[in-house]
Design goal:
Oligomer: single chain
Number of helices: 3
Helix content: over 70%
Order of helices and strands: HHH
Shape: elongated
Number of strands: 0
Amino acid sequence: MSSFIMVLMLISAGVLVLSFLYTLKVARQQKALKNELDTDLPDKVQEHPYTRNPIFLTYLIAAVLVILFIIYKAVDLYAV
């Protein structure tokens, strides 16, 4: 297995662990707020709605990884 694959596997494992921990944190917050129907958005989220959105962050990180992979393969293919 190449070192590039190993690095990608480690990054993927790290993202999975962090995502799982974040999911547990959010689930605990939902249990604490189960009697309230709607809560106010935090001020930081209101000020930066796009940078605090995990879906946009996921797309951004995925795009960066794809671009890095393309650059790696291009350099690997055309390296003399």
